[in-house]
Amino acid sequence: MSNSSLLRVILIVTFTVPVPMPPPSLYAAQKPADDVGNYIVTSLGNSLPRGAYDNDYRSHMQHDCFGIEISPDGRVYAGGANESGHAISVYVDGDLESPHIPKGTSGHICWNFGTKNLGAVSFDDAHMYGISQCGEFHKWTRTPPYERISTMIDEKIAPEEIVVKFNKLYMIANDKGDLQIRKLDNNYTVITSFTVPGAYDIAVENENSIWVSLGGSRTAANEIRRYDRTGNRLSGSLSGFGKLMGIAISFQGELLVCDDGPRKQVLFYDISDNANPKLTREFGEQGGIYNGNRGVLDNDLQFFDVQDAGTDSAGNIYTLFSTSSTIGQSGGNMIRAYKSDGTKLWELSNEIWTGCTSVLPSSDGFEIYGAEEVFRFDAQALPGPKDQQWKLYAISKDDITYPSDFREINNFPKRPFRGSAEIRELNGKRVIFRHGMYAETIENEKGYDFLVFEDRPSMISRYCGYLHGSGWAWYPDMEGNVWEGDAQGKIRMHTFSGFDAEGCLKYDSYEEYAYPAPMASVQRISYDEKNDVLYLSGYTPDKKQEAWGLAGKVLCRYDNWKAGNRTKRYEIDLPVDNATPSRHPKTMYVAQDYIFCVAVRPHNGISQKITVFDADNGKKVGTMSASDQYGKLGWVDITTGLIAFKRSNGEYIITVEDNAYAKNMVYRWCPDGGDCAQTTPPSNVNGVAVTNIIATSGKTYQADVLLTGKRQYIDRKYSFTYIPFFPGYDRSMYGEMTYIRTANDDKNASDADFLSFTVNKPVTVYVALDERISTPPSWLNDFKSTGVQLKSQAGTFNLLQKIFDAGTVTLGGNHSNESMYSVVIGPAVDKPVIAVSRPGFPDAGGISARFHRAKLFSPAGHLLGEVRVDRSGKIVDGPARFGAQSYLVRFESGAVKKMLAHLNRKPAY
Question: What is the pTM of this model?
Answer without folding.
Answer: 0.76
